[in-house]
Amino acid sequence: MFQTKSEERDYAFIPNADAPVVNRYGQSIETVPEGHELRGKSLNVNGDKSVGSNPNRYKQHGFYFNADNCIACHACETACAEKNDTPPHLSFRSVGYVEGGSWPDYTRLNISMACNHCDDPVCLKGCPTRAYTKFAEYGAVLQDPDICFGCGYCTWVCPYNAPQLDPVKGRVEKCNMCVDRLEVGLKPACAAACLGGALDFGIIETTPENRHQTLTQIPGFPTPEITHPNIRFQQTRTLPRELTRTDSRAIRYERDEAGDSPYKTKLRDTGAAKGWGLKDLSSREDPLVIFTLITQGVVGAMLALILGPLLSPSLAEGYAQAGTVTQAVLLFALLGLQTFALALSTMHLGKPHRFYRAFNNLKYSPVSREIAGIAVFFNLLGAYTLLASFPMLTAWLPESVANGLVAASGWGAALSGPVALWFMHKIYRIKARPFWNHWQVLTHFYGNALTLGALTVALVFGGVLFAQDAPLAGFLSALAWPVALGIAMEGVGLWFHARDNQKIGEAAASHHEQVTHFAYSYVARNVGLGIALAGALALALSAPQDGAALGAWFVLGAIVLTAAFIGRALFYVLVVPTSMPGGFFWRNPAFQKHARETGLAHLPQTGVVMDGH
Questions:
Q1: Environment class of residue 453 by beta-carbon count within 10 Å: exposed (0-12), middle (13-18) or buried (19+)?
Q2: How far is CA 526 from the centre of its chain?
Q3: Which range of residues forms the domain containing residue 32?
Q4: What would the pLDDT profile of 301-353 be if each residue is shown by its tens digit?
Q5: Separation of alpha carbons 196 and 97, rounded Å
Q6: What is the number of alpha carbons within 13 Å of residue 305 lying toward its C-beta?
Q7: Total of domains in the chain
Q8: What is the largest CA-CA distance in the chain?
Q9: Can you point out the beta strands (E) in 535-600?
Q10: How many whole angstroms separate alpha carbon 259 and alpha carbon 262?
Q11: Which single residue of 8, 32, 402, 478 has CA 20 to 30 Å from 88?
Q12: What is the pLDDT at residue 455?
């Protein structure tokens, strides 16, 4: 157990205060009822099997932050770092700030934030490996870094920057509420170290001495409706109507009217010049750019192969004319591409050798469901490829059974592919990332599947038919329609996405970055889609013959692929999360980028490391 010092001061101990039965969200403050099987168990802190003596062990605890008193001394950060022995580039608790007004009446509001051990922890639900547990003891949300495989999805879904992805160790770690201190009645190290009496701790919905407010939100703090966090605030000082962040996020906070109206997250126009932003299109998520595009293309190609002959006699005739060898080559190519994509997504993990843990949270995690869906599709694709390409494998079976296995595996792949893409799109429907939380993600993914899949089949079979001097017009014309439909789906989604983004703070900041720093890349992608749509419709309606047709398809393919890569790269780099504000040197994306470009990241004291996993 944690060893209490003989001279420990009274302020370091958790007060034994009376608490209501439920919190303001209707959640019971008693984590488990009397007599429950979870009571009386040891937390095994540092291997100690004894049970803590805290009388309120089974009540939800939380932090209390008095913003009026915080002087940004960072004592809480230091105490946390010392207690958890964190490296300089990780900070389970950090102090950021927002500021506003005009000289000489300039106001700064400091905010100290760590994990809020929420009633509805989205990190727990999102984690595919089940590394997170919400404990009956104190309601603490704890994470086991030894189970984590470093996908970082919890860092996407948390609105408060609580989980920290360590690119050096390739895993996530976070605040553990100092449960070893709680077991002996002590407050967490950060709260005990606070010099200004700003940070406190106790049973949630109880108010510390000499405090009277228990707000759930202050300027800079994302909406509590996402997770119902266990933190309460006091903020009584008069603040300007508008507050801005000092980090590089294009965000400000504005009160609707003078008085006590809540602050709303708004766009802060940075005045950035328009540019291409090509160097910044690359990100840590580059493997996901390739993985998602390949997967969608392979799914679309399977749909074209299986459904195409049923929808178009021209496709059935073209497939038959090109022969089974062409289909076998294409199927093995698709299987190889999907294998490469899966390997790439696995290597994107901080701990690739732990990939098998991805299926551990099928009940809640969209990541687990996506991986399971793609695994089903991949195995059915493999089965269909082998059975359709090598009839001798089923020659010993009755013909009807053999044909049934081929058909079942083919239809299984064709039907499971779109289901896998549905699960893939759900990964990005994250409330903490408003730019992604839009139905356009679905039209984007399904649209790419139709376009890339039909394009792949057209180029492969079209090339073979051209070499055989077979007619191409009807075959390619039939495949041009799904290409056009996919582009149209994506275009409609993008139009609504751009319109709706301008109404939401963080999404508006993403859109602002899209039309300034990445403006020319954004326009080039949109123009490319427009040209590709016109070209696909022209090919569908005019049905050019022979070499001209195939040449036009190669040009169309180049335009579509370029637009797809630009669009998917923008998808990942533009997102602005609902994060806590940082400072000028810490938790500031602009400073982190500067440190990596100039080599400052090689100095540990900067708190930035070079990009890795």
A1: buried
A2: 24
A3: 10-240
A4: 999 999 999 999 999 999 999 999 999 999 999 999 999 999 999 999 999 99
A5: 16
A6: 35
A7: 2
A8: 93
A9: none
A10: 9
A11: 8
A12: 96
Kindly state the average pLDDT of the residues 579-603.
90
Burial state string for 19-55 with b = 16 or more CB within 10 A and e = fewer than 16: beeebeeebebbbeeeeeeeeeeebebeeeeeebebe
Same domain, 214 and 311: no
Q: Which of 466, 578, 511, 535 is nearest to 161 (CA)?
A: 578
Task: Out of 240, 271, 292, pick the residue that ends a domain.
Answer: 240
What's residue 469's pLDDT? 86
Going by C-alpha positions, the residue among 611, 470, 576, 19 that lies closest to residue 245 is 576
Within a domain: residue 573?
no
CA gap 158, 226 in Å, rounded: 9
Amino acid identity for residue 44 in this structure: N
Both 117 and 31 in a single domain?
yes
Comparing CA positions, the residue from 347, 353, 352, 427 lying closest to residue 126 is 427
Nearest to 449 by CA among 311, 334, 362: 334
Residue the block writes with tokens 């126009």: 269
| Rounded percentage of the chain residues whose pLDDT exceeds 70 | 98
The two three-digit tokens of residue 278, written as one number: 């090509």
DSSP state of 212: -
Q: Give the chain's count of helices (H) and strands (E).
A: 16, 12
Instruction: Answer with the one of 377, 405, 427 that is the final residue of a domain.
Output: 427
* pLDDT reported for residue 260: 53
Strand order through the sheet with 199-203? 199-203, 61-66, 231-234
Collect contacts of 528-532 with beta carbons under 8 A, ≥24 apart. 528/559, 528/560, 528/562, 528/563, 528/566, 529/487, 529/490, 529/491, 529/494, 529/563, 529/567, 530/491, 531/559, 532/451, 532/483, 532/487, 532/556, 532/559, 532/560, 532/563
- Which pLDDT tens digit goes with each residue over 240-286? 999 999 888 999 999 877 555 588 899 998 888 999 999 999 998 99
**CB-based contact 576:56 (threshold 8 Å):** no
